[in-house]
Structures are given as C-alpha cells and as structure tokens.
Amino acid sequence: MDILAIANQKGGVGKTTTAVNLASALAHRRKKVLLIDLDAQGNATTASGLDKRELEYSIADVLLDDLPIHEGIVKTPNGFDIVGANNELSGSDLHLSQKPENHAILSKAMQQLADMPAKNGRATKPYDFIVIDCAPSLSLLTINAMCATSGVIIPMQCEYFALEGLADLSQTIERLKSLNPKLHIRGVLRTMFDPRNTLANDVSMELIEHFGPILFNTIIPRNIRLAEAPAHGIPALDYEMNSKGSQAYIRLANEIIKQSRQFQLA
C-alpha cells in the first residue's frame, strides 16, 4: 500500500487538482485508490462528486471522535473511494492538540485499513494507493499526514520564490523524519506550467539543476479543462480524457506506479 501526501505550505499551486486527478488516473490504471481529504475547505470532496454538506461521516469523525476509518469511506462515481472533509474539520488543531500522540492519529486510523471487515465471507482487497490532500499549512493535520505517508508529492508553480518555498518545505520534511523515519519526498511536480512564460522556463531550469533527482518528468500544463472539471464535480479525466491536463495526470500516474514497484509498495 503506497501512501502519498500531496503537500505544499503555499496555496494555489494545484494541490487539490493534483490529489483528485492523480486518484482518478490511478483508478483508470485499475488500481484500488482511496483519497483522503484533509482540508477543511473540502474542495477535493466536492471535486470528486460529493456534497460535503451531506456527508454522513467525514475525516473529522475519524480524527476527533475515533470513528473507524472504514466507516467514513464513500465510493465516488469516478472509480476511487474517498474519506471526505467539510467545515467540521475547522479548528481541529485545538482538539487534536489535547490528544495523546496527536501526531500519529491518522497513521493509527489508517492501520485499520489492513484489517477491513470481510464482505460476504471474502477478504477485502487492500488499497494499492492512498492519496492525502493536505491543507496549505503546517498544521497538526498536515503533520498527521506526514507521519502516515510513505512519500510526499510537492506540487509547485514555476514562479518567483518557488525555490525558496521548496527549500523550506524540504527542511520541514527533514525535521519530521524524527516522527516518521520513512518520510521522504517522492517527487516535485511542476504545475500550471505555461511554456510561453520566460520566468516559468527559467525556474523550471533551476529546479532541474537543484532538484533534478526528485523532479517528476511529467509537467502539468495550465489547462482550461483542469479548471472547469471541479465545477462539474468530476475529475478532468472523466470530464475530457483527451485534454492536455488529463493526459499529463495519466503520465504522472504511470511514473508513480513505476516508482511504487521500485519501492515494492504497490
């Protein structure tokens, strides 16, 4: 089971777009996928076709009220499962801070997935991939994601200050290795890329120079279909499979599947 946290302390970098469309692309590759929405805005939940106001249970119930995580799992119409989020997650840091081992609550909850109840006498197939959409902050929620994951995917725009932000996040991940020794950066993903933009090309070249070994080959283009799809409550792959954005996420999924085989995680 490969657990991937999509994280960046900066907002507006395509984090949720990446989480939803990566989950969708992996599902299109016949992988069993669970998406966990760890952002109180619940945008990943909405973009997956669910009404966050009508969730029977959310990730807040799992983290704050000890609900078994499998009870919060909902099947989406897009081929993957989700534990959704809504505004019940707002202010959760205060409640989490009062719990023992508050950095490991999500990790312990996810351990239950290996022991999901059998259905009709048959064992439930474990997930190949779990994708966690983190909030754009270094909150206790994000720390929980970092402690539960086997790798972090960092989406970032090729813009001014991007390298500085990436360096800061890399240092944060290094510090958190004391809580999760397996934590590492799985890859840096260039998003919303416009090849006509000189600055974007310059920053991309600097990323190759300084972070080449952890840079995904796939580049996510700035694409209108990626922007439109969430308004329809579906991933871009189900909105327009042949769009440049959808095809980019399929290539990213292929890269990640190859990585997972190398790490023997999926």
TrEMBL record:
Entries under Gene3D superfamilies matching the protein: P-loop containing nucleotide triphosphate hydrolases
Identification of the protein by name: Sporulation initiation inhibitor protein soj
Domain AAA stretches: 1-185
UniProt xrefs under Pfam families: AAA_31 (PF13614)
Family, as annotated: To B.subtilis soj.
